[in-house]
Design goal:
Structural class: alpha/beta
CATH class of the largest domain: Alpha Beta
Strand content: 5-15%
CATH superfamily of the largest domain: Aldolase class I
CATH topology of the largest domain: TIM Barrel
CATH architecture of the largest domain: Alpha-Beta Barrel
Bound molecules: iron/sulfur cluster
Number of helices: 18
Strand order of the largest sheet: 8-7-6-5-4-13-14-15
Shape: globular
Distance between the termini: 35 Å
Helix content: 40-55%
């Protein structure tokens, strides 16, 4: 545990006169300007009630760790014992879309040599079942994985067969435009609980402009596929997420309303990717991360208004961050943890049989940056974990040790992203001052903690529901869950 005692206190400014203090256990408090002054002079300058409050939260203690401290810390980092839990299969790189911001250099529909071989798929499953993780998610990505649904079917059926002995909690998901999933494929997804995730970038004109397909009807075909998929999988069987390009920044409310009109109960707001192929189109679609944070703040404010008016609607990334803030349990989101999820929590099996520590690593490889390849699907898991790439990435995997992060009050809730920092800045440890990863998270944590400090009852009720993954109706008030 950092700090050597019960807690290392870190402080970060909320840029409105208030500041967050937190410790390694994830305990936190928001201090106003006078409390910050009093604390800087010494604990005894705080009013007694506030001092006792901060002591109770272990924010003033620098003594030996209690058993409770150790239990909390172990819970916060329990994912470490599990090994890779997310296994991404890139069954094909082929796709009939040519999305302007696409992170990968996709191959055309007719291209040869861009599909995973059945033998490599089985070898990748050997790696999946070598992982000690009791929960395993197999995610199909592309290209467009539905173009090789035969491979999806093979992997799912083989995984289910193998798991009869292993007894892991097995989950499947697939990222798809929904254009190529016929009724038979959808019935298979329903039978095996394969959850679908698709992209909807906003209004029809914007979606078609950003995600062109040969017949220039990408939006209507995805909407048609959405209807068919929901009819078979149910309304919650398909989620969608937009990629926020520069064109989307002006109308956060319109985007949220469009998702509601399409019947979604959540949205995952994510900025345009800084990786791979997307780097080439950043001049057109990219923006400063501060613009995204402003967009996010406006979208979140609107979503909170909706919830306060009785409309259950979730911003998924906030719910990830709030789970880290309000509970000792990790969200399971492998892109935001410390030690980092790359390789340690997730593996990507590429169509060509190479293994990468994250989707971003293989995206960088598609543009010629091969530094992230761990080895082949035929190499044992131990060999992949001991590869030079993993040894290199581990140097930037522990957020609490990184310059900038080590003194940041958000670090217990944030994570390390050595692949991003290595790909964009050349060093897995990275520079926080110029890191978009940090700019995004610093911005989002500040927004959330300002809301938490403002203490609006309805907002806290919504935040609690999101952190706990429960409907708002089950939260009587923040911190109290109806049974
Ligand atoms: S990445 Fe930025 S926001 Fe996250 S812990 Fe590090 S310094 Fe803080």
């Amino acid at each position: 545990m950092a700090g050597g005692g019960g807690s290392l206190r870190r402080t970060t400014d909320l840029l409105d006169g208030r500041a967050v203090v937190s410790n390694d256990l994830g305990a936190f408090a928001v201090l106003d300007a006078s409390e910050q002054r009093q604390l800087s002079m010494g604990d005894s300058f705080l009013p007694t009630s506030r001092r006792q409050d901060l002591e109770a939260r272990r924010l003033l203690v620098d003594g030996a760790q209690s058993r409770l401290d150790q239990a909390i810390y172990r819970t916060r980092k329990s994912f470490l014992l599990d090994g890779p839990a997310l296994h991404i299969f890139v069954v094909t790189l082929r796709c009939d879309h040519s999305c302007h911001y696409c992170q990968v250099s996709r191959a055309s529909l007719e291209a040869r040599g861009f599909d995973m071989s059945p033998g490599d798929a089985e070898a990748a499953l050997d790696r999946v079942f070598e992982s000690p993780s009791p929960t395993v998610t197999i995610e199909f990505q592309g290209g467009e994985p539905a173009l090789r649904f035969d491979l999806v079917r093979q992997v799912v059926e083989s995984a289910v067969r193998r798991n009869a002995e292993m007894g892991k909690h097995l989950r499947f998901s697939m990222v798809s435009t929904l254009h190529h999933l016929d009724d038979e494929a959808l019935a298979f997804c329903a039978l095996h609980g394969v959850h679908l995730s698709t992209s909807i970038d906003g209004p029809e004109a914007r979606h078609n402009a950003q995600r062109p397909n040969p017949t220039r009807d990408a939006w209507s075909r995805t909407i048609e596929g959405l209807g068919r998929a929901r009819a078979v999988l149910g309304d919650d069987g398909v989620v969608a997420l937009p990629t926020i390009t520069r064109a989307a920044l002006d109308d956060p409310v319109g985007l949220v309303d469009q998702y509601r009109q399409l019947g979604f109960r959540s949205i995952f707001l994510r900025p345009v990717s800084p990786y791979g192929f997307a780097r080439k189109t950043r001049r057109v679609h990219g923006y400063d991360m501060a613009d995204f944070v402003r967009f996010y703040e406006a979208a979140l404010a609107y979503i909170l208004e909706l919830n306060a008016a009785g409309v259950d609607f979730t911003e998924v990334y906030s719910s990830v961050l709030l789970r880290h803030i309000f509970t000792p349990f990790h969200s399971g989101y492998v892109d935001l943890r410390s030690p980092a999820g790359a390789g340690l929590g997730a593996l990507v099996y590429n169509y060509d049989g190479k293994v990468y520590p994250s989707d971003e690593g293989r995206m960088a490889a598609e543009t010629g940056d091969q530094r992230f390849a761990l080895g082949s699907v035929h190499d044992p898991l131990d060999f992949l974990m001991a590869s030079p790439a993993m040894t290199w990435l581990r140097t930037g995997a522990v957020a609490e040790e990184l310059p900038g992060c080590s003194t940041c009050a958000f670090v217990p809730f944030c994570g390390a992203d050595p692949v991003y920092h290595a790909a964009v800045q050349g060093d897995p440890r990275g520079e926080r001052d110029t890191s978009e990863f940090c700019a995004k998270h610093m911005g989002l944590f500040r927004i959330l903690f300002r809301h938490i400090a403002d203490g609006d009852r309805e907002t806290l009720r919504t935040f609690t529901a999101w952190a706990m993954g429960k409907p708002r109706a089950e939260i009587r008030w923040s911190g109290f869950v109806e049974r």
